[in-house]
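[INFO] parsing input record for MerR family transcriptional regulator
[DEBUG] input buffer:
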Amino acid sequence: MRIGEIAALVGVTTRAIRHYHHVELLPEPERRPNGYRAYGFRDAVLLARVRQLTELGLSLDEVRDVLADDAGRDLTEVLEELDADLARQEAEIAERRRRLTVLLAAGTGQDQPLSPALAALLAKAPPTASPAAAKDREHLMLLDALGSPGQEAFAALGPLASDPGVLALYERLDALAEASTDDPRIPALAADLVAAVPDEVFTAIPAEGQVATGFQEALLAEYAPAQAAVIRKVMKAFAHRSRR
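[DEBUG] output buffer:
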């Protein structure tokens, strides 16, 4: 058989066959006096097996391992490894689709992907023009992207999302935008903020030594001095409760 004939028989292109020769996946057949390759039955069997393995998703290097007579891996081992890899990809795709479904249902309008738990949490929060609430939302989105706290913590915050008292706390923090750091409202607001957070959340908050260097100061720099004083007290209280 000539190259076009074996290509048609096996169902591959002549270009693919030439590539297999080039990467030494298939041995070059003998050539006729006129220079044309002369393919035989064994060449067709080998080429058919290459096609079968590549259609299963094996790379050419993996196909070479399977075809090797001595040092190659057993076909069953390669196929089991491929099956496990495909299962992992299917699980990842299913998780991504689940997150997309939650985002579409929640209608959060965010411009970055969120975990299902955080998307559900933000969907419960009423609209507000509070700058402090906007900062808190951004903080939660950053923690979500970093994988901390866990999804259980976001779920535990659920009841607070639609609580009018939480909006009142944000408004009290907004009111400190022009205040001094010795404002008497600071300690009371910090205590009320800490008291509003369920105990379940604190088990997911990392200890101070586990927080990235500079993270807390970068967060505090986003607030006015009096507001930063409140947040600093809250952070200290959080760290203390999470160690219990």
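[INFO] The chain is about 65% helix and 0% strand.
[INFO] shutting down worker
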